[in-house]
């Protein structure tokens, strides 16, 4: 569940931009792809390249956090008005 402030801020940004559904769909797809990139760069790449398990924590936390934010914003854009 997202806090009301989160919904209010990002919902207002989308309303101010006055995007059509097709434009929101494209923007949502871009943000979803950005989430995939954060997942690949922040979680998968460190697992494949780092030697110590302790070196995976910091990029993994950032990768997971930014993945969740990007995908959440992507889904929020497509929410019906």
In short:
The mean pLDDT is 80. By secondary structure, the chain is mainly α.
Task: List the main descriptive attributes of the protein structure presented here.
81 residues; 3 helices
Write structural notes for this entry.
This protein is mainly alpha-helical and 81 residues long. The protein has one domain (4-78). 80% of the residues lie in helices and 0% in strands. It has three helices and no strands. The chain has helices at 4-17, 21-49, 57-78. α2 packs antiparallel against α3 (57-78). The longest helix is centred in the middle third of the chain and has 29 residues, at 21-49. The radius of gyration is 15 Å and the shape is elongated. The mean pLDDT is 80.
Approximate strand percentage? under 5%
Mean of all residue-level pLDDT scores? 80
Number of discrete domains: 1
Total strands: the figure is 0
Give a quick account of the main beta sheet: strands, pairing sense, barrel closure. none
Low-confidence segments, given as residue ranges, are none
Radius of gyration: 15 Å
N- to C-terminal distance: 18 Å
Quickly count the helices: 3
Using the alpha-carbon principal axes, give the shape: elongated
Helix content: over 70%
Structure class? mainly alpha
Spell the H/E element sequence: HHH
Write the layout of secondary structure elements.
Layout: H1 4-17, H2 21-49, H3 57-78
Helix pairs in contact: 2-3
């Amino acid at each position: 569940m997202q806090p009301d402030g989160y919904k209010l801020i990002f919902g207002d940004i989308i309303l101010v931009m006055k995007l059509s559904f097709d434009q929101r769909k494209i923007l949502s797809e871009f943000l979803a792809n950005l989430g995939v990139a954060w997942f690949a760069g922040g979680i998968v790449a460190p697992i494949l390249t780092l030697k110590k398990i302790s070196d995976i924590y910091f990029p993994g936390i950032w990768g997971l956090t930014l993945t969740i934010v990007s995908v959440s914003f992507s889904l929020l854009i497509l929410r019906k008005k």
